[in-house]
Amino acid sequence: MENSxxxxxxxxQNKVYRKLWGIGFVQAIMRWMELTALGIFVxxxxxxxxxxxxxxxxxxLPLFLxxxxxxxxxxxxxxxxxxxxxxxxLSIINLLLFLLxxxxxxxxxxxxxxxxxxxxxxxxxxxxxxxxxxxxxxxxFLSKAVGLDLTTSxxxxxxxxxxxxxYMSYIGIEAVYISGVIFMLVGSLIGxxxxxxxxxxVNTNDNFGSYFSNILEGIKYxxxxxxxxxxxxxTVVMNIFAFSYRNMVPxxxxxxxxxxxxxxxxxxxxxxxxxxxxxxxxxxxxxIQLSNRFYFFGCIIFLIxxxxxxINDKFLLAIIFMLxxxxxxxxxxxxxxxxxxxxxxxxxxxxxxxVLAASIGTAPLGAILLGFTASIFNANMALVIFSILGLLLxxxxxxxxxxxxxxxxxxxx
Length: 413
Description:
By secondary structure, this protein is an all-alpha fold. 81% of the residues lie in helices and 0% in strands. The chain is built from 16 helices and no strands. It has helices at residues 2-13, 15-46, 49-76, 79-102, 108-136, 142-170, 173-193, 208-223, 228-241, 249-255, 261-285, 291-310, 315-342, 346-360, 363-376, 379-400. Helix 3 packs parallel to helix 5, helix 9 (228-241) runs antiparallel to helix 16 (379-400) and helix 15 packs across helix 16 (379-400). The longest helix has 32 residues, at 15-46.
């Protein structure tokens, strides 16, 4: 416990980490509040599970489109400037959406375009902000730094949906957008005050031909790793067949559980409560040699919880499943970043984190497929189908990379 306390003191005394932590906080609370509120609002507007799924689609699409390029940009350009400019632009976009909402001119395409731009902020978080954390923090404290960062994000998954439920029950979507203006301006200001050493990669050239050659080099590096490669394959599986389930929670809440928008926010908050509990414990107690096992079994338990949520129509049971889903998701989230960072060298880390962002960016495919499946059957059946497919594919990956679960260092890489 004393060692954990010393780690926490070290992190909190690090001025750069504190600022990066603050940026992550405002980004995370806005993301979870926005996605929950927009899911409720779009379902009220369209009564279509497909268009609710498109909210998640438009938010995650930038990860797929720009993830790898953002990884390269983060190696070439000053990352504090990327944060400052992007957050400031998003604050202006949120202001425009607020004005459209307050004067009742807002339309579905405005909402989807807005979530696309907010998705760019999330896409840059992996190679830009996490890249700064990995560069600034001593490697012996890295697991604690990643764990504290994810714990904070998980706390935001409690606060964000809860606030969204209140906003959508008593105020309206305009409250979400004015909150976005404030949060993004705060993030931009913190980014402006960041101090960053010159970490530009001297091997990264300016022309686009070199960008694509660097991407190919990064992919070859990843493909040669018996740890990073299956980690990314499982990441793709989870983002297509698992994490898009959140888009269906407002639909399940309205159609199956028969609960109010406020209780939908409460239900989603329980995922955050579970994630916060697990990430707090893991960030203090996780043995880095067991990261791969926590990663894989976290995926399996999460998919089982989605299956159970799909066959359930009781609100109290749904809370339990969401709580356990959040705990297993925390196991996945902490170890995912830790595996990538600890198994990649600094020369390739920006590109590997960029490919990680692109892997997570495959979730739009899952959002579309889940939306279509829910339209053909219903939201509950869609979760059952997707969770079964996800389980089968994760097991198939681990059968082909059995050394992934080994704790013997000699078989790694």
